[in-house]
Design brief:
Distance between the termini: 20 Å
Largest sheet: 6 strands, mixed
CATH superfamily: P-loop containing nucleotide triphosphate hydrolases
CATH topology: Rossmann fold
Bound molecules: adenosine-5'-triphosphate, magnesium ion
Shape: globular
Strand content: 25-35%
Length: 234
């Protein structure tokens, strides 16, 4: 479903160029789950942001093979910002390392807001009751129905992460991208999140999970390592 070729990303630190990704190639098949492992600072989050359309690749000269991210026949590195925006809002579900929930909104509102941004206000208000029902159903599936009117500050880390996952799923994304979804959780809570990902995968969800955790990695179809700015298999 997605084929990334020759992705390069360099950050500027003052005047120093820090190359983080140096030509990453990665393909994701429909329904596949991939675990990305790599040392801290190896560029895992950077890669996930590129795949999710949250950041853009380096511009390269004619002497270097051009980068591309093909998603169902469209090259994300070339499409208009409007199209890229649509990809980000409708095709991808992103679970951030540190949740990024909106503190003033309830659990239910945090989840439905993602639907509102994907659908646009008009369509959202037209289909609001169905969207809310879907959000409730998702929250129930991940064991949070008793928390829907709570705000993030009143939740544990594991509960916040589950809200973030429900938010990532509300638009039925083609591709789920999760950045260390169990990184900040204790082992038991982490295991329950992992079970959730496993059941999503069994139901056909395509996903890329960044992780430090061997158990998470072992449950995926394929493990790739990010080393020296490139992807190594196995
Ligand atoms: N916006 C930025 N500006 C400058 N440097 C950055 C920026 N974002 C990331 N970096 C640098 O790029 C490198 C890769 O960062 P990235 O967050 O992708 O690593 P990571 O593999 O996700 O690490 P971790 O496992 O700690 O989350 C790091 O050295 C980081 O300092
Ligand atoms: Mg990271």
């Amino acid at each position: 479903m997605l084929q990334a070729t020759n992705l390069r990303k360099t950050y500027l630190l003052g005047r120093t160029k820090v190359p983080v990704l140096r030509g990453v190639d990665l393909s994701i098949q429909e329904g596949e789950s991939i675990a990305v492992l790599g040392a801290s600072g190896s560029g895992k989050s950077t890669l996930l942001h590129l795949l999710g359309g949250l950041d853009s690749v380096d511009k390269v000269g004619a002497d270097v093979a051009a980068p591309s991210i093909m998603f169902r026949g469209q090259d994300l590195t070339k499409i208009s910002t409007g199209k890229l925006d649509e990809y980000r809002r409708r095709r991808v579900g992103f679970v951030f390392q540190f949740y990024h929930l909106l503190p003033e909104l309830t659990v239910l509102q945090n989840v439905t807001l993602a639907a509102m941004t994907a659908l646009g206000a008009f369509e959202y208000f037209r289909t609001r009751s169905a969207v809310r029902a879907h959000a409730r159903e998702l929250l129930e599936r991940i064991g949070l129905s008793h928390r829907i009117t709570h705000r993030p500050a009143e939740l544990s880390g594991g509960e916040r992460q589950r809200v973030a996952i429900a938010r990532a799923l509300i638009n039925k994304p083609d591709l789920l991208l999760a950045d260390e979804p169990t990184g900040n959780l204790d082992r038991v809570t982490g295991a329950s999140i992992l079970d959730l990902f496993t059941s999503l995968h069994k139901a056909g969800q395509s996903m890329v999970i960044v992780t430090h955790d061997e158990t998470t990695a072992a449950r995926s179809d394929r493990i790739v390592h990010l080393v020296d700015g490139r992807v190594q298999a196995g």
